[in-house]
């Protein structure tokens, strides 16, 4: 049995629970999580963190 993996991005106006619901509707189970900060430059100064990008890894048995 082969396992298919796919990364799901938690949208800006979406909760983690809503993203997990979307994953299960597509037939995936949560298998991991990663976070990356999103930075922006403000008026030529140093980069400032704006928000956190959250990605959930889903696994589907095919």
TrEMBL record:
Pfam families recorded: NETI
Superkingdom of the source species: Bacteria
InterPro entries registered for this protein in UniProt: NETI
This protein's name: NETI protein
């Amino acid at each position: 049995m082969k396992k298919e993996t796919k990364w799901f991005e938690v949208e800006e106006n979406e909760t983690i629970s809503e993203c997990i619901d979307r994953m299960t509707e597509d037939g995936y189970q949560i298998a991991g999580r990663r976070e990356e900060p999103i930075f922006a430059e403000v008026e030529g100064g140093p980069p400032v963190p704006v928000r956190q990008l959250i990605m959930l890894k889903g696994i589907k048995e095919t």
